[in-house]
Write a structure and sequence with these properties.
Blueprint: H1 5-25, H2 37-55, E1 59-61, E2 72-76, H3 84-96, E3 103-107, H4 117-123, E4 127-128, H5 131-139, E5 143-146, H6 151-154, H7 171-179, E6 183-189, E7 199-200, H8 202-208, E8 214-215, E9 235-238, H9 254-278
Parallel strand pairs: 1-9, 2-5, 2-6, 3-4, 3-5
Antiparallel strand pairs: 6-9, 7-8
Helix pairs in contact: 2-3, 5-7, 7-9
Length: 285
């Protein structure tokens, strides 16, 4: 028999009460990094789904390049003044991947020094961007997400949009080489337009101990309303994986690390150019 209209709501209420009961009783599991899959699925992913699906109208391609099981290092471009692209990527990958895999994000130290933000990052699977943590996750068969541009990527001016910044010293490559993990480059178009950064007030950033203090068309002029992201059109493409199993003995070779990091960077940059041609209007349908 078909469900009556009230049945669906009855189930939702019952499921919600059961969820609250488990949380209050501590009847849930977290891993050694603090990752809470149940909370992520029940609270954080539904919120992010509204953003990536309805607000940003995100199109995802190439998800077949992400392994169905086993470890992989997903390397993306970073942008947007606020690191929303990392969260959108993790939620979209989980929803679109046939195995609904979780992406364990590596974040800067600043993220894990901020109250509330650090707790949310841990609960959703994040950890500090350091080689030991990355290698432990990869060694355990997880998907690990990293954005080598760091604050240089998310804090660049709108005039420099979609121009990849330096990839640091290639620590992410070393982690992949030591574990023989394939590297999956991913290009994200759309993040640059959500908070177009017109200027950086450096004295204020130093005073507040922030990497930058952004000035956008809406912030700080509109106060809290300036934090509402503009509804840009997003495209995410996962590129074919780059194998590293044959290079495990070269994890400490600076030349091998640099060449592989440069190959990943160039792959992402070229894919960004292709995606931008597919999306001539940043705010189109």
């Amino acid at each position: 028999m078909a469900d009556r209209p009230g049945d669906q709501w009855d189930r939702r209420v019952a499921n919600g009460l059961a969820f609250l009961r488990r949380r209050l009783a501590g009847d849930y599991e977290v891993d050694e990094f603090g990752f809470d899959p149940e909370l992520t699925d029940a609270v954080f992913h539904p919120l992010l789904r509204l953003l990536y699906r309805d607000w940003f109208r995100t199109e995802v391609s190439g998800v077949e390049n992400v392994p169905v099981d086993g470890p992989a290092l997903v390397v993306g471009n970073h942008s947007g003044t606020v690191a929303l692209d990392a969260l959108i990527l993790s939620a979209a990958l989980h929803d679109k991947h046939p195995a609904h895999r979780y992406l364990r994000l590596l974040g800067a130290d600043l993220v894990f020094r901020m109250p509330v933000v650090s707790e949310i990052a841990r609960k959703t699977g994040g950890t500090v961007a350091c080689n030991p943590d990355a290698e432990r996750l990869l060694g355990g068969g997880d998907l690990v997400g990293v954005f080598p541009e760091g604050f240089k990527g998310i804090g660049k001016l709108y005039a420099d949009r979609y121009k990849l910044q330096r990839f640091g010293r290639g620590g992410f490559v070393s982690a992949a080489l030591r574990t023989g993990t394939p590297i999956v480059p991913v290009a994200i178009v759309g993040g640059e337009e959500i908070y177009p950064m017109l200027a950086d007030i450096k004295p204020l950033a130093r005073l507040l101990k922030l990497p930058y203090f952004p000035v956008t068309p809406t912030f700080p002029w509109l106060g809290p309303l300036g934090m509402v992201p503009l509804p840009s059109k997003w495209l995410i493409e996962f590129c074919p994986p780059i194998p590293t199993a044959h290079l495990t003995d070269s994890a400490d070779d600076p030349l091998v690390v640099f060449n592989l990091a440069d190959q990943v960077r160039e792959t992402i940059q070229q894919t960004l150019h292709t995606l931008l041609e597919r999306r001539p209007d940043p705010f189109g349908p």
